[in-house]
Design goal:
single chain; disordered C terminus; alpha/beta; globular; 9 helices
Length: 259
């Protein structure tokens, strides 16, 4: 069976694969979007656009909730530092616009969106998780970081807005200006994540929490009230001519140069 160019592979729950993401529609109404770009789900233009399409497809369907996770040992290692430097100026601009659009799409989705952080979540990978309504992380040796400063990559406007909205100011200053990594337990203490679980429990718990949120009768309305200001800011950023941060255009910084 082929649906929207994606091949169905299961009867009980519809699971389809499309290049760099895997979309599974479970019988309980939860849709799973897995980043599937081995070995570490590093973000390139194709993956970012695919996640946006996957989240959009779920939002436009009858799915009750969405869980976003990574395939393999990583949630996402962030920007692909091997591919991004090969982009020309237009591709770099497209990539920045795409990540701005992705976080806007996640934040504005009316169903609950839960991040199941199954492994390392670095830079843009952690930003994607921060854009979700709830963040669950697996216990283990993996690391989480907003390490753009160490990678030589400034924040696009959308991800920066998400970080500022979701983290306490002191945590934002600490993690963004030092680029240091934290483990799941410290991330919980800093309120970067909401729960830490054993790896074998992570996905089931994420789906359970997603359904709990979906069962709340006023969830879409209250979500719009609570996340509305951020959603509006992200929509404005997505429509802006400067997709990076004020004053950064034309300056080569790490992997990005917008013009």
């Amino acid at each position: 069976m082929v649906e929207n160019g994606m091949r169905a592979r299961s009867k009980r729950s519809r699971r389809v694969a499309h290049a760099v993401i895997d979309l599974e529609r479970r019988a309980d109404g939860v849709a799973l979007v897995r980043m599937a770009r081995p070995p570490v789900n590093a973000l390139d233009l194709e993956l970012v656009r695919a996640i946006t399409r996957g989240v959009g497809a779920v939002t436009d369907s009858d799915a009750r909730a969405l869980v976003l996770t990574g395939d393999g040992p990583c949630f996402s290692a962030g920007i692909d530092t091997k591919v991004a430097p090969t982009y020309d100026a237009q591709q770099r601009r497209d990539a920045i616009n795409a990540i701005n659009e992705l976080v806007a799409t996640i934040c504005s989705a009316s169903p609950p969106v839960v991040a199941a952080i199954n492994g390392h979540a670095m830079g843009g990978g952690l930003v994607i998780a921060l854009a979700c309504d709830l963040r669950l992380a697996a216990r283990g040796e993996h690391k989480l970081a907003l390490n753009e400063v160490a990678a030589g990559v400034p924040f696009p406007a959308g991800p920066l807005a998400v970080v500022r909205a979701e983290l306490d100011p002191s945590v934002t200053r600490d993690l963004c200006l030092t680029g240091r990594t934290v483990g799941p337990d410290e991330a919980l203490a800093l309120r970067v994540v909401d729960e830490v679980l054993e790896p074998r429990e992570l996905l089931d718990r994420a789906c359970e929490r997603a359904l709990q949120l979906a069962a709340l009768p006023a969830y879409p309305l209250v979500k719009a009230q609570v996340r509305g200001p951020l959603t509006a800011e992200l929509a404005q950023i997505a429509a802006c001519d400067d997709p990076l941060i004020s004053g950064a255009r034309g300056a080569r910084v790490g992997s990005w140069q917008t013009g």
